[in-house]
Task: structure prediction
Amino acid sequence: MINIPKGTKDVLPSESYKWHYVEDKLRRLASLYNAREIRTPVFEHTELFVRSIGDGTDVVSKEMYTFEDKGGRSITLKPEGTAPVARSFAENSLDALSLPLKMYYIIPAFRYERPQAGRLREFHQFGLEVYGATSPYLDLDCISFAYDALTGLGLKNIRLHLNSIGCPECRKTYTAALKGYFASRLDEMCDTCKDRYERNPLRLLDCKSPICKAIAAGAPKITDYLCDDCRAHHDKLCALLEKSGVPYEVDENIVRGLDYYTRTVFEFVTEELGAQGTVCGGGRYDNLVSSIGGKPTGCVGFAIGLERIIMLMEKQGADFGKENLGVFVMSQSSEQTDECIKLVAALRKAGISADTEMTGKSLKAQFKYADKINADYGIVIGASEIETKKVKIKNLSDGTEEECALGDIEARLKEKYNG
Result:
């Protein structure tokens, strides 16, 4: 037997309805926020991620699925969705459209890391990207979308953590201060942090090692090094969040792991998924488009890990609804199968989901099957039903029945579903 690759997971028919529920909710919310879907390829040129995410990040240096194609080009399965959207924005001159432009995506993404609960090597993300302005009002709109998405899915005990990591100019001063602080403690820190010290000092602040975390607690704070513009942006955003009723707390250890972030960074976190408690992360990346050859463009966005959201919803007992069949048409014997198929075709044409028995099950077994697939109604067709041209529509949840002419079934059922 050939088994599934490590770090991947099948979404089985018995579970897929949960994904449909979450994705449908997010798509409807996107429509309310005037966001349109964008779809980018599952792989891109490796250079895109090196230039945008940063070759000093863990994603690029350790986690990407990169290979050489038959033409000798370096190709990478996308490890996240933001850089491909930026590439598409620049390449397709989307700045010529009316701005701001709001786009969302639902994608598979790939990172080679140690599999754990809710964190796989192939995972799925919902993301929102807002292009065209540097205003903190767009930060608010983006964060509000994420807040509405999470609360709209019924999630509880989710907290918004917010920070500013400044612009490249004020971050230079801050990075120098960080390196000065950590220099004397580096020998006590983990190997990952020793590597980050040279490549990406900001990441020293969010190491999960207890020792490194304790050392980082005394590090200089980025908010003490923000330039006037970055501080004004951060203060305005905080004021807007307070006015909008989105609860938040400033967390100066949030830096996010990708180089393209500037100014606003945020995470929605929970303590119900263990140490890896982030369910949504995002921020502003005003230099991203220009870093890959496009025009300078203000951008802000976020991504939600769908596996982690569904896991948290399950843990909190969320109601995903159910995927059910409208009508299951049953035959008393194989002689009536053709009539059953004819009725099913008419029901489907009328917009009512329907199916019938085609494998030779007994009538008793057909009722059991209808129950297992959560059919709302059952209709039995036998010789007498064909002769009288009348059937009984049975409500399979409460057992009640009502008689109906064969020719009126579609109309009667449409009344039931449309109230």
